[in-house]
Write a structure and sequence with these properties.
two-stranded antiparallel sheet; Rossmann fold; about 200 residues; seven-stranded parallel beta sheet; alpha/beta; 9 strands
């Protein structure tokens, strides 16, 4: 019964969203594959992802997802615009943030919660820029990164969504977010995907 109470009783989408930020760690590639599969080629919302990877390894996330999705996929670079209809991944070894002009900034500041890139930093910077027009999704992971950032989105009036911990490959990250505040949505991946599609539909209208 407790799990059911976390599910929203409100209508599926409550307002227009102009950007989406996502965070994941252990198990994140599989989770993102389910979440983002079969996105329409007409997709318009800009999306940025922090997925924890070892700093010493080159990331191939952009190439992997570019082969699977019909939308442009990039590894974010410093000063690159956060453009509509595109998916961006944070490069390993750099913090990724979004600046006022809606462009990316990379930094080599110390790790946050042992993580660089930090989900908290991406989400917090995006909340400062987009305010209530931001949606944050936090998925499977093995530490508390993202809980503070998702809370910042909540405080700014944005929409917050967390993967159902019982479904997550590693439940630590979604559980930490739920402990920090009550997200708008706590759902299995396929229902989070439906929510993402609804956000796009509201944005387009």
């Amino acid at each position: 019964m407790t799990g059911r109470m976390k599910r929203p009783l409100r209508p599926p989408v409550r307002k227009r969203v102009d950007a989406v930020v996502l965070g994941a760690s252990a198990g994140g590639i599989d989770a993102l594959t389910v979440l983002l599969e079969d996105l329409p080629a007409s997709w318009h919302l800009p999306m940025a992802v922090v997925l924890h990877l070892p700093e010493e390894h080159e990331s191939h996330l952009a190439e992997i997802f570019a082969q699977r999705l019909p939308i442009p996929v990039y590894e974010a670079n410093d000063k690159m615009p956060f453009s509509a209809g595109c998916l961006y991944f944070a490069p390993p070894g750099y913090h990724l943030s979004i600046e006022r002009e809606r462009a990316f900034s990379l930094s080599c500041e110390p790790p946050v919660l042992f993580s660089r890139p930090s989900i908290d930093l991406l989400m917090s910077s995006a909340a400062d820029v987009y305010g209530s027009a931001l949606a944050g999704f936090l998925l499977t992971g093995a530490n508390d990164d993202g809980a503070q950032g998702l809370h910042r989105i909540h405080v700014a009036g944005g929409l917050t969504a967390v993967q159902e911990p019982k479904e997550a490959q590693i439940p630590t990250m979604p559980q930490a977010a739920i402990a920090r505040h009550t997200p708008d949505y706590v759902l299995p991946l396929r229902e989070l995907r439906d929510l993402l599609l609804q956000l796009e539909a509201v944005h387009e209208h």
